[in-house]
Structure formats: structure tokens, C-alpha cells
Amino acid sequence: MRLPDLLASRRGRLTAFFFLYVTEGIPLGFAATAVATQLRRQDVGPAEIGAFVASFYLPWAFKWAFGPFIDVFTSKRLGKRRGWILGTQVMLVITLLSCTVLDLPAQLGLLTGVLLIHNSFGAMQDVAIDALAVSTLHEDERGLANGVMFAGASIGMAMGGSGVLFLMPLIGLKGGFVFVAGCIALVTLLVVLPLKEPASPDVEERAVGLASAGREMRHFAVEAFRSFVGTRGAWSGLWFSLLPAGAMSLGLALQSNLSVEVGMDDDSVAWLTLWMSVIGAACMVIGGWLSDRWGRRRMLALYLALMSLPVFYLMTALTEHQWIMPVAADLRRTAPAALVTAVWVATLLYAAANGLMYGTRSAIMMDVTNPAVAATQFTAYMAMMNLAIAYSATWQGIAIEALGYPKTLLIDGVIGLLCLGVLPFIKPSATPAGDGGGARRARLLALILAAGCVAWVPYRAGVYDAGAAGPIFETLFTLVFVATAVYLAAAVATLGASARLAGRLGLVLAPLLLAMYVRRWWPQLDLLYDAVPAAAALVLLSLVRQPWLVLRSSKPALA
After folding, report:
1. Which of 17, 47, 90, 131 sits most deeply, having the most CB atoms within 10 A of its CB?
2. How many CB atoms lie within 10 A of CB 219?
3. What is the rounded average pLDDT of the residues 382-403?
4. CB 164 within 8 A of CB 267
């Protein structure tokens, strides 16, 4: 029996994108809930689990970089977007199945590396799915389709988390990897393979090759750079995206760790996660509706404040019952019923507040996105929000072991409120292409990045010791290096001949800054790791002195 092409009808398109987003949610729910829970049962420390969960979100922070390649390198035979979706889903299945041969927790580091690669393909798939949605969804069905897509991701996370935990007594952890791979493979066979993507009009066909890719990357760099620094609203949105969107601890590994330690079995954790998904999904719809009626910034500020309340409540309950530090498996005691109840109450209240925030946060970022580069700019905002999740998971895992649960919750609840200071400035601009202040913001950003590169030099030399917080510092410096590489590439394209020498140096340094990411695995390249950030700081300081005349008007940088 021939399977139908779901892109051929309205109902089919909604069904297709629902299941495609399910495949995005399943692996995330599996790692953050099912795998994290089992690792804690095997006495893996919270810091290691936090780093593991962070590795799942980190590739999504840089998914914007896949866009130009997915746009340029296409296949007429497989479909412009369908080919990428098909290829990435095959790699998702292969990487998951390869995890079944690993010995956990002894090979946790190798598992983290494999799943980092796995999620790189997942992030690539997400970009291709969104691009397919833009090109195939009709205008009168896009709103409903986006709601269906987010619902699919939420259900996928519940399947990968709660679903696998329910099955764990029967299939075990390795069987969980097979189950998740099987779910993705079913979508590939039943949904992706039968799709018949419409051919692109001749006027939209692009030449394939490195030269075309280079032109696309240059256009991407200029337009994205101008969109981020061109208006105050977009500039504020940049910093808002990099800050945690409210308290995050009860949505990350801390909650999974604590559930295990207070004595909840796999079924209890599964039911808790399932109710979190149901409540969160419902509140996403409610929160968006209320923000449309009462104002986005006002309601978002309320939602962000509400997210800290259950965190502070659980902090108080843990302190009252003297449940302070993580406890090894062989030393755990039975938790009082009141404390287990507090974990349930705090987690479900947090799911409601987080759900209210989720849709409204996305909507307010759309408000300050330049329509001319909507996909690029909005994807970048979402990617930076994923980066905030990654570094939050990292520092919280370290803090739990160093400070205990209550103090970690207190810090998280306070840090989650910092974004409220930026929120009032995220307003749409009457001139989305630029308000004339872009030059000042470009120089300020160069100065901030230069300070980050300079701070690396004494840190690398051992002048100050980060101690247990070392992984957090390493993550922040990685962010600085990646941001500097992107900044230099965009600055070269934007300034052109007006910064010829700095431009040439920037083009050389940009890939070397990206190569700084391998310092964990190849520590022998001392000269590279010392010299490149110092040289980048000097180039950035030279760009601070540039007048940036091209950003002082509201005219687009490229026609």
C-alpha cells in the first residue's frame, strides 16, 4: 500500500509537522529525564549529570550556523528540505543505536560525546523542518500549525521521558535507546519518505558550490549583524536571550536528581514528568492568549517572577527537613512524605509558570525581529536561549555538589529575575532596519568581547583559579570565542574596504577562534590557545575605533 504524501493537503501538513516535531522532543525528554534519572540511581554526581544535560542543549545554541548550508546545498532528487530531514534522521537513529554498546556509567564521557554529535544532527534537522514549514504551509494555516508543532515537541518529550521510564522495568536503559531510535525511524519511514516536496521556482534556484555558499554566508552575516545592533529593541533582545528566562532549576537535572534522592521510583518520576508536560502545554496556550490581551511585556514580567516562587518554596522545604547536600546511593535515607509532596507541588507549579512564560517569550522576540531577516534573527534568538539552558545546567550541577540544593535553588531563583531589568527595553522599532544607533552598539559589543578575550589570558596562565567552577568559566569563554568569531566575520562583511587590515586579520582569526573549542581534547596546542584570544582582542579594539558609518543610517547594508 502506497503511503500518502502528507504535504498535499491541509490536514496532512499539520499531521506531518506534528510528527516531525515529535522526533525533536523525544531525544530531549529521554536524556533530560530518563537517562538523567538512571544515572543518578547509579550514583553519578550532579555535576556530571548537569554537564551531560548541557551537552544536549549546546548544539541548539549554534543551530543558526546550519541555515546557509541548508539553503545552498540541496538535492533535486531528494528535495530541497526533505533531503536534509531524511539524512539527519538517519544519523539520529545511528547515533542512538551506537549508545547501546556503551558501559554506563563508566563510559559517561563517551556517551556525552556521542549524544553531542546526535544533537548536532537534531539541531540541523530542526532548521530544515522550519524551512520546509515556511515554504509549504499556507498563510491561513501557519498559526494553527505552529501550535501543533510545539504540542508535538511537548508530547515527544513526554514520550522520551515518562514513556521510557514506564517501560524501563521491561526494556532497561539500553532498550530505551532502541525505543527512541525506533520512534524516529517510524516517522522517517511513514512520514518523511512519502513526502513530495514542491519543486522550487526557477527564480529561487541557487547555484550549488563553495562560491555560492560564501556569498550566502556573507549576506547572512551582514543582515544578521545589522538586525541585532540596528535597533534598541533588537539589541536588548540579544542580552535578554543570553540571560536565563526565569529560574530554570526545576526544569533541568536538579529536579531529576532530587526526585531520585527523595525516594521516588521510576513510575512516580514518569507520572510527575507527564503531568509537567500536560500542564506546561496547556499553560503555553493560556499565557499567549493573556499576553495578547494584557500586553506582552507586562504579562511576561509576571510569568518570569512566578517562576521563582516554586523554587523558593522548595528551597524552604528542603532547609526545613535538613535535606541539604546530594547523598550517595548507599547512604540515602527515607524522605519524609511532606518533602516528597513539596517536590511534587513545586515541580507542577513551576511547570505552569514556565508554560505561561514559554509562548509569550517567543512572541516578544518576534516583535523585535526584522521582517527582512526574520528566519535568521529569530532562529539566532532561540539558539541563544538554548545556550542559556546549557550553561545553567552546567553551573547548577557544580553548585549542587559545592553548596547543596537549597543554596543552588536560591541562586537560581535570584538569577532568573535578572532578565526583568532588560525586559522594558524590548520594544518594536518604527525602523526595524536600523534606528541610527547601530554604530555605537557595534563598538560597545566589540569592547565587551575584547574584555572577554583579555580575561582569558590570566585565566589560562593560572593567575586565578576557578576551582570547582572551572567548567562554568570554560563554557563562558567558549561563548566569548564563538561570539568573537561571528562578530569578526560579520564586521569584515559589513565594513568592507573601510577596515581592510582589520578585516584580513579577522578572517584569519575567526576559524582559529572556533578551533579553541577543541582545547579540552587537544591541550597540547598551547601556543594557539594563548595567542589567538590575545590577537583577537587587539583586532576588536581596532574595530572599536571604527566609525561604522554604514550602521548610522536605516538603509539596508545589502540590496
Report:
1. 17
2. 16
3. 81
4. no
Give strand pairing partners of 205. none
CB neighbour list of residue 502: distance below 8 Å, 6 or more residues apart? 491, 492, 495, 539, 542, 543, 546
8 Å CB contact between 22 and 159? yes
Cell numbers for 522, please give them: 587537544
Residue with cell 560525546: 113
Listed in order, strand segments (DSSP E) in 195-333 are none
The predicted structure's pLDDT at residue 559:
31
Is the pLDDT score of 452 beyond 90?
yes
Sequence-ordered strand ranges (E) for 125-227: none
| Rounded alpha-carbon distances, angstroms, from residue 555 to 16, 345, 426, 552 | 40, 53, 22, 9
**pLDDT, mean over the chain:** 80
Give the DSSP H or E segment for 219.
Answer: helix 210-229
What letter would DSSP give residue 51?
H
Q: Tell me the percentage of the chain whose pLDDT exceeds 90.
A: 20
Nearest to 487 by CA among 422, 454, 536, 438: 536
Spatial separation of the C-alpha atoms in residues 393 and 387, rounded to whole Å? 10
In whole angstroms, give the CA distance from residue 57 to residue 393: 9
pLDDT at 204 over 50: no
C-alpha cell at 55: 551537552
Closest CA to 185 of 347, 12, 364, 27: 27
Per-residue model confidence (pLDDT) at position 38: 78
How far apart, in whole angstroms, are the C-alpha atoms of residue 345 and residue 132? 40
Whether 90 shows a pLDDT value over 90: the answer reads yes
pLDDT band at 202 (very low <50, low <70, confident <90, very high): very low
Map grid coordinates 509576571 to a residue: 302
Phi, psi at 369, each rounded to 5°: -90, 135
Of 166-180, 243-257, 285-299, 360-374, which range is least confident? 360-374
**Angle 487-488-490 (CA atoms, 0-180°, nearest 5)?**
65
CB neighbour class for 241 (10 Å; exposed up to 12, middle 13-18, buried from 19): buried
Chain segment 221-265, per-residue pLDDT in tens:
676 677 778 788 888 988 898 899 899 888 876 787 788 888 888
d(CA 182, CA 7): 23
Which residues, 6 or more positions from 290, have their beta carbon under 8 angstroms from its beta carbon?
299, 356, 360
Give the residue among 207, 348, 355, 246 at the shortest CA–CA distance from 290.
355
pTM over cut 0.90: no
Residue type present at position 362: S
Q: How far is CA 461 from CA 182, 487, 520, 535, in A?
A: 48, 26, 16, 16
Res 475: pLDDT: 74
Coil vs helix vs strand at 381: helix
C-alpha count within 13 angstroms, C-beta hemisphere, residue 30? 29
